[in-house]
Amino acid sequence: MQPIEKPQAWWIFRLGSALLLVGQVWLHLLQGKVCLRRTVEHMVTAGPAAISPVLLVNGFAGMIFTIQTARELAQFGASNAIGGAFALAFCRELAPILSASIIAGQVGSAFAAEIGSMRVTEQIDALYMLKTDPIDYLVIPRVIACCLMLPVVTMIGLVTGIAGGMFAAQKFYQIDPAIFLESIREFLAQADILIVLLKAFIFGMVVAVIGCSWGLTTKGGAKEVGASATAAVVTTWVAIFVIDFFLSLLLFEGPAL
User: Fold this and answer.
1) Which of 153, 38, 148, 140 is closest to 106 using CA atoms?
2) In the chain, what is the straight-line distance between the N-terminal and C-terminal CA atoms, in Å?
3) DSSP secondary structure of the chain
4) Model-level pTM?
5) Is the CB of residue 15 less than 8 Å from the CB of residue 117?
6) Alpha-carbon distance 42 to 178, whole Å?
7) For residue range 161-203, what is the model confidence (pLDDT) as tens digits?
């Protein structure tokens, strides 16, 4: 039974470490312990360096969603409402989730692998010898970078998804782009945009914290570094969907509960 239970216990330990790391990050931020130079470096990694796959995924997702939705709505003579359906589903949910998932796979895994390599090669122990806190030097710049850049990346991905959906609606269903955009404007409120930004901010913190925490708790050698990076991505994806579920209940279904 021990070999079966050990991975589960280790995962629970790592999850608990990630939750504790969140508290440590906020405590250090309140104390003003921020390395601006390293933060800017990681902002480039989490933003411009990771934007291409986000744009591709959101663009094609917008086209796919529009094609599937338009086909059904056209049968009921509700083609003018395609943009509204697109706004309610894609803009509120799909865009932030897709963007965060891509960043988790590209940036979160890199965080886990980089810090994990430092852990197994005792570079983090060297930071302690130099009286440098790894949280200040390694974790906080990455958390700030993801929290700031993921909302920006998500909004750019959202615009790309809308452009893709508008293209598909015009190309395959002859829906005028002005009608498509007007329908989106009617259904998508300003509060929805703020919610998307809030979700992206929270997802950014999840990506950075889990990636860093899984890296800091890596033990062994090169094989374990790769395993930590993979586990960090999978855990982040699960956390994103779980958090999005509760945020949706809280923000969109709160009065009904």
Assistant:
1) 153
2) 42
3) -HHHHHHHHHHHHHHHHHHHHHHHHHHHHHTT---HHHHHHHHHHHTGGGHHHHHHHHHHHHHHHHHHHHHHHHHTT-GGGHHHHHIIIIIIIIHHHHHHHHHIIIIIHHHHHHHHHHHHTTHHHHHHHTT--HIIIIIHHHHHHHHHHHHHHHHHHHHHHHHHHHHHHHHHH---HHHHHHHHHHH--HHHHHHHHHHHHHHHHHHHHHHHHHHHT--SSHHHHHHHHHHHHHHHHHHHHHHHHHHHHHHHSTTT-
4) 0.90
5) no
6) 39
7) 999 999 998 998 888 889 888 888 888 888 889 999 999 999 9
Joined together, the tokens standing for residue 241 give: 């969907």
Structure tokens belonging to residue 101: 């998932």
